[in-house]
Design brief:
Blueprint lengths: L15 H7 L8 H9 L2 H16 L38 E3 L12 E6 L4 E14 L1 E4 L2 E4 L5 E5 L6 E5 L9 H12 L5 H8 L7 E7 L3 H7 L19 H9 L1 E3 L10 H16 L6 E5 L6 H13 L5 E5 L12 E7 L16 E4 L9 H12 L8 E4 L7 H13 L3 E6 L11 H6 L19 H4 L6 H4 L9 E6 L11 H17 L19 E4 L4 E4 L9 H5 L3 E6 L12 E2 L7 E12 L4 E5 L4 H4 L4 E4 L6 H5 L11 E2 L22 E2 L14
Parallel strand pairs: 1-2, 10-14, 10-15, 11-14, 15-16, 18-20, 18-23
Antiparallel strand pairs: 2-8, 3-6, 3-7, 3-8, 3-9, 4-5, 4-7, 11-12, 12-13, 17-22, 19-21, 19-23, 21-22, 24-25
Subunit structure: Interacts with PELP1, WDR18 and SENP3. Interacts with LAS1L to form an ITS2 pre-rRNA endonuclease-kinase complex.
Pfam families: CLP1_P (PF16575), Cupin_NOL9 (PF24419), NOL9_C (PF25467)
Family: Belongs to the Clp1 family. NOL9/GRC3 subfamily.
């Protein structure tokens, strides 16, 4: 790998100190500095060597006139030769060039140029903006070519590190000299003459040149502004390789990682993906419906993101149906949604929150004890699928007992053309969902084909609620089966049975924070605290209320709504014209969810809800229902309200858990010393009394 650090063989008998010492950066000193270094004791020697390395990283010349120079930056010459420094060109917006032997120094402008030979990769952590200046590269399955727009890449510490790989591209009968001249002209706008000279010495045919830029977004700034969450994107890890490459990457906001920390897919995953891409691009008699299933933490979501990026290299859009309530991909948790994906997915879910085509707020991260409602919502959302592009269906990781029967019902309901089943030696056992197995098994709400006259899946009870095209309504609902595609996963997850729930809870909170980050002004404007934003005023008689996860007494309903995460929904019934409110619903409706918000306060005098939401006003006019579930506001939002004096709003150590619905736990959340209190500091708002 032409741009990677030198890796040494590790024998079982070598100590950590020997390996660390061998990986140190070598100094190139003249005779006098070497003598001085030899006379010092080991402590002073370490300090002296550290200063020399810092000077070397800065590009200071110590060979001539008592300065230090790196081996790549100093051209070999005789001792009697006079120094002949290359005159720099006009100081263009300078960047840093990353090479196996770093020849340049950081310009501090937050940009770096990376040269990747064909077949080589660059594994990193952090976030950056990637532009392909020359050649072609692939990130997470998505191909970025010369002349294409820059892409925002998020390689976070909560997921596998991403790798930028140089791939083969076609060259129209150009000689190496012509390619080198073209690359040199492209670099003239980014590197000065010395840096360009050092970079082009490592140029080879079919290599790729990238521009890495520092990425700043309001959503990322909002997430890292909360205590303890800055580690998600950047971590300060000690390293022995402190050189110009280290400083160049640090100015961009990334750091090089070992290749073993990067994403690794098995051969079976690649072969299945290649077949699915070929089918999606060549199928003429319909769009494939691809259902992905498997146990928890086995790599389903990673496979789906990679597959989406691979498909976007060939087709313009893909439909995505989210059926996993706990770990949603494009929306806050607790939703079942249908989206049309047109842009690559180059990061974890909390880095690409998007507006779905159709969404229903289920209100809980799991469908246990409410299977029928879960199936009905999927039927309602799936009815909006137009069959104009391939559909990818993500399912839950619950594949045991009732979860397996529920999955069989989903297969019969959605009628996929391909079922991708993940299996692992370390995961929970799951039988092969072959067409014959699904035919002969009863689901929770469907019967096997041996109990139905037709050989296909005749779902009379489901057919009534699905909407089909006119030509499809003439034919009976007859499903003829699917193709099972097995993937042997070697995905290694950092989750254990003990920390799985807490880890998933952190990911859900990051998704909520990412959604709330849409309230922030665009960069470079400073962040604004949530309590400093102006909320919308919603009259009591304009919206109906419903608590999804618990039965709450009408006298306590406002306690549950205040300072809660609410779904902004649209029901068919007209709630206007009722009494002054609040208007309560007896049952949870299946309705469209237009977005989410925070009930920041309740004004009992004026009978108003104060809602804080990023949903645009033209969409808010259609909202006439507020749904409250177990998805809560992250505690870091309530605890880190800056700029306030005295008692922090909504935080108390004296909370009455005897109220109906007050002791409802969210996942495995433990009782902490601080609890959310339904209290707002302004006198006009609704206050809690014990």
């Amino acid at each position: 790998m032409a741009d990677s650090l030198l890796l040494f063989k590790r024998g079982p008998s070598r100590s950590t100190w020997l390996r660390a010492r061998k990986a140190r950066q070598h100094l190139i000193l003249s005779y006098r500095p070497r003598r001085r270094l030899g006379r010092l004791r080991w402590r002073s020697r370490r300090r002296f060597r550290r200063r020399l390395l810092q000077a070397q990283a800065a590009g200071v010349d110590w060979r001539e006139g008592g300065c230090l120079v790196s081996r790549a930056a100093a051209p070999r010459r005789h001792k009697t030769a006079a120094p002949s420094p290359r005159p720099p060109e006009d100081p263009a917006p300078s960047c840093s060039a990353i090479l196996p032997i770093p020849p340049v120094r950081s310009a501090g402008s937050g940009r770096a140029v990376l040269l990747l030979p064909l077949g080589q990769g660059f594994t990193f952590s952090g976030i950056c903006r990637v532009t392909c200046l020359y050649g072609q590269v692939q990130v997470f399955g998505f191909t970025i070519s010369q002349g294409q727009p820059a892409q925002n890449v998020f390689s976070t510490y909560t997921h596998c590190r991403l790798t930028i790989n140089a791939v083969h591209y076609s060259v129209h009968e150009k000689s190496k000299k012509e390619m080198k001249r073209e690359a040199r002209s492209l670099l003239r706008s980014y590197l000065n003459q010395d840096d360009r000279y050092c970079l082009m010495k490592n140029f080879s045919p079919l290599c790729s040149i990238l521009l890495l830029e520092r990425l700043k977004t309001s959503t990322v700034n909002f997430i890292i502004s909360h205590p303890g969450l800055s580690y998600v994107f950047v971590q300060e890890i000690p390293t022995f390789q402190i050189n110009s490459e280290y400083f160049a990457l640090k100015s961009v906001g990334i750091r090089r990682e070992r290749k073993k920390n990067g994403l690794r897919l098995t051969e079976s995953a690649f072969s299945v993906m290649e077949e699915l891409v070929s089918i999606s691009c060549e199928e003429a008699d319909g769009c494939p419906v691809i259902l992905v299933c498997g146990s928890q933490d086995i790599g389903k979501s990673t496979f789906i993101r990679y597959l989406i990026n691979q498909l976007l290299n060939s087709i313009s859009c893909i439909d995505y149906l989210e059926c996993d309530l706990g770990q949603t991909e494009f929306t806050p948790p607790g939703c079942i949604s249908l989206l049309n994906v047109t842009e690559p997915v180059l990061g974890p879910p909390f880095t690409h929150q998007r507006t779905p085509q159709k969404m229903v707020y289920y209100g809980k991260p799991s469908c246990k004890n409410s299977f029928e409602n879960y199936i009905e919502i999927i039927k309602y959302v799936f009815s909006s699928y137009k069959r104009e592009s391939p559909l990818i269906v993500n399912t839950m990781g619950w594949v045991a007992d009732e979860g397996l029967l529920l999955l069989i019902d989903l297969i019969r309901l959605l009628s996929p053309s391909h079922v991708v089943q993940f299996s692992s030696d370390r995961g929970r056992y799951m039988p092969d969902l072959s067409p014959s197995y699904v035919d002969n098994m009863d689901g929770l709400y469907t019967k096997s084909t041996s109990k139905v006259r037709n050989r296909g899946f005749h779902l009379a009870e489901f057919a009534d609620s699905l909407e089909f095209a006119d030509e499809e309504k003439e034919n009976p609902l007859l499903f003829t089966g699917f193709k099972l595609m097995s993937v042997k996963s070697e995905f290694v997850s950092g989750k254990t049975p003990r920390n799985r729930e807490s880890h998933n809870k952190v990911l859900r909170e990051l998704a909520v924070l990412s959604y709330l980050g849409q309230l922030q002004p665009p960069v470079p404007k400073p962040l604004c605290p949530l309590h400093g934003l102006t909320p919308y005023q919603v009259p009591f008689n304009a919206v109906a209320l419903r608590i999804i996860h618990a039965d709450v007494a009408p006298t306590h309903i406002l306690y549950a709504v205040n300072a809660s995460w609410v779904g902004l929904c649209k029901i068919l019934d007209d709630v206007r014209g009722y009494a002054s409110g609040p208007i309560l619903l007896a049952q949870t409706p299946i309705c469209d969810c237009l977005g989410f918000g925070i009930c920041r306060g309740i004004d009992m005098e004026k009978r108003l809800y104060h809602i804080l939401t990023p949903v645009p006003p033209e969409e808010l006019r259609n909202v006439n229902c507020l749904l409250v579930g177990t998805i809560s506001i992250p505690q870091c939002v309530l605890k880190s309200q800056r700029g306030l004096e005295g008692t922090i709003p909504y935080i108390t150590t004296d909370y009455n858990f005897k109220l109906p619905g007050a002791s409802e736990k969210i996942g495995a959340r433990e009782v902490e010393e601080t609890r959310k209190e339904k209290l707002h500091p302004k006198p006009k708002f609704y206050r809690k009394t014990n």
